[in-house]
Amino acid sequence: MPTARPVHLVLTALTALTALACVAGCGGDGDGGSTGSPSSASPSQAPSRPHKDGHLTFTVLSLRCGITGVTGSHADAPPQGQFCSVRLRVENKDPNYHVYETERQHLAGVTGDRARPDSFAMAVRRQSEKVKMGGHTLMEVELWYDVPKNAEITGLRVSGDNDPSSFTSTVPIGRAPNGVLVPMKPVVTK
């Protein structure tokens, strides 16, 4: 097998060179530019405590504003004002299915349609509008908002499901009419 060793050495060398090249310039962790994906938690911003609405429990992992563009696998775009991005953990601690809806999560400090996630930015980032969460399921999502440049963001209003309170019940579990405020001051990208 004298030919196997040179081929193995060449493949090993190519793999090492590819890895080295990727370390030097293969996209980053999202913190290097204003258009990347936000990390789960920033050193300057601690996650919120969990907040429950309906059957779903929400934790805001990060909130960033002042973002000058959104980039995805098939498009990019600037905002009309500024983008704010929220990294949100959603947990269904119940054994039944419950639906998470993106459009029900509103940015606090903004009124009207601008308080809802921006449909184009969400499509660019390929984020689902609705997710049917299985029992005892946890997921993390990105929410993208296009808000006025002078908006005073104070947090996120989260809203869960309104399904029956139990398997044998027809009475809804109930949820806050305007969502539950998760207060958080955004980190502003410069």
In short:
With 190 residues, the protein is α+β, with helices and mostly antiparallel strands.
Would you kindly provide a written description of the structure presented here, covering whatever features stand out?
The protein is built from 2 helices and 12 strands, in the order H-E-E-E-E-E-E-E-H-E-E-E-E-E. By secondary structure, the chain is α+β, with helices and mostly antiparallel strands. The protein has one domain: Immunoglobulin-like (Sandwich). The strands form 4 sheets. Strands 1, 2, 5, 9 and 12 form a 5-stranded mixed β-sheet that branches. A 3-stranded antiparallel β-sheet has the order 7-10-11, with no helix packed on it. A hairpin with a 2-residue loop joins strand 1 (51-53) and strand 2. The protein starts with a helix and ends with a strand. Residues 1-43 have low confidence and may be disordered.
Helix-strand blueprint:
Layout: H1 4-25, E1 51-53, E2 56-67, E3 70-71, E4 76-77, E5 82-92, E6 98-101, E7 106-108, H2 119-124, E8 130-133, E9 137-147, E10 155-158, E11 180-183, E12 187-188
Parallel strand pairs: 2-12
Antiparallel strand pairs: 1-2, 2-5, 3-4, 5-9, 6-8, 7-10, 10-11
Terminal residue distance:
59 Å
The Cα radius of gyration reads: 21 Å
Count structural domains. Answer: 1
Major sheet attributes: 5 strands, mixed
What is the assembly state of the chains in this entry? single chain
Using the alpha-carbon principal axes, give the shape.
globular
Helix content: 10-25%
Features:
190 residues; 15% helix; Immunoglobulin-like; three-stranded antiparallel sheet
